Amino acid sequence: MSELETRQLRYFVAVAEELHFGRAAARLGMAQPPLSKAIRDLERQLGVQLLIRTTRQVALTPAGETLLAGARDALDAVAATALRTRRAGQRDPTLRVALKADFDAGLLPAIVNVYDMLPIELVLGGPGDQVRALHDGRADVALVLAPFDERDVDSEALVTGPRVVALPAADPLAARTALRPSDLAGRRLPNGSPAESADVTPPSEQVKDLAQLFNLVEMGTVVWFPPAWVAHRFPRPHIAYRHMPDLPPATLAVAWLAASRSPAVAAFVRTAREAAQARAAVNPGAEMEARQGW
After folding, report:
1. Which of the listed residues 12, 173, 249, 264 has the most CB atoms within 10 Å of its CB?
2. How far apart are CA 287 and CA 292, in angstroms?
3. What does the radius of gyration of the chain's CA atoms come to, in whole angstroms?
4. Which phi-psi region, left, alpha or beta, contains residue 128 (left: φ > 0; alpha: ψ -120 to 50)?
C-alpha cells in the first residue's frame, strides 16, 4: 500500500464531516464526480470500506471513523509544521507567547524585561486557546492557567494562589465574608456548570475577555471563580469577591510542546521560573495575605 497524501486526507475529511458529497465538493471548490472517484480510489488503496452510501445518506464505517480521527490529527500536524517552518525562516524571528490577557499573575513584565534571546510577540486568546496555539504552531510557549490539556505538552508551575468567588454586589450572599459551594445552589458558572459543583475549568469559548465576564457577573447571569490575583487587580463597584476555602487553588504554568528543542523556548522557561522565584522571595506571604483578604 502506498503512503497516503494530504490531498486524499483533506478530501476524505470534508466528506466525513459533511456526510454529503455535494456539500463536501462545494466546500473543497471542486466538482462532485472527481471527489467521489477520489474517495473510491482511497478505499481501494486502503482495502477497506470507509463510507456507507445510500440514496438518502452517507455514513461512516468503523474504519472511516478511525481514518477521520487520524486524518484530522495529520492535517493539523502538517499545517502546524508548515507554519513553524515559515516562522523559523523569517529574517527577524520572534518568540510567540500565548496567554489570556490579564491572567499572567503580574509576571509578564518581569519576564519581558529580562528575556533577551528573541523579541517577544504576544498571542492573545480566549479561555483554553493557549494550548491549542502551541499545537497549531501559532505560539512557541504559553502562560496558561491550570487545569489544561497536557497531552504532548510539558509544563512547569510558576505561581499558585487562592481563588475567590465573584458575584453581584447586590446578591444577598455578598453580605458574608466566606462562602461554601452549597451556598451557591441555583447559580450557574460561565461554562454552564452549576455553581455548587465548584468547577474551575475555563469559561465557555463564547466568553472571550474579562470585560464580558465581569458584565455577566454584574448582571447576575453567572458567578465566577477567578484567581485572587485577578480579583486584586480588577476591583469593581458592582462585583463582590468573597473567600471560598473549598475551592482548589489557581496555578499559573508555563507550557511548551514536549517535542520542542528550541533554545529560545528553554530560555523563556528559565526566565519565567526565575521571575516567579524572585517575586516569591520579595513577598513570601503573598498567598496568605490574599487568603486573609477575602
Report:
1. 12
2. 9
3. 24
4. left
Assigned architecture for domain 6-87: Orthogonal Bundle (1.10)
C-alpha cell at 102: 490579564
pLDDT, one tens digit per residue, over 258-289 is 988 889 999 999 999 999 999 888 765 554 44
Alpha-carbon span 15 to 17, nearest angstrom: 5
- Do 157 and 250 meet the contact criterion of CB atoms below 8 Å apart? no
For residue range 49-79, what is the model confidence (pLDDT) as tens digits? 999 998 788 999 999 999 999 998 888 888 7
- Note the CATH architecture for domain 90-160+250-292: 3-Layer(aba) Sandwich (3.40)
C-alpha pair distances (Å), 22 with each of 14, 15, 141, 264: 10, 9, 41, 47
Question: CATH second-level architecture of 163-243?
Answer: 3-Layer(aba) Sandwich (3.40)
pTM: 0.69
Contact 166, 247 (CB under 8 A): no
| Encoded amino acid at 242, one letter | R
C-alpha cell at 214: 465581569
CA 162 to chain centre: 21
C-beta separation of 121 from 94 below 8 A: yes
CATH 3.40.190.10 boundaries in the chain:
90-160+250-292, 163-243
Helices and strands of the chain, counted as H and E runs:
10, 9
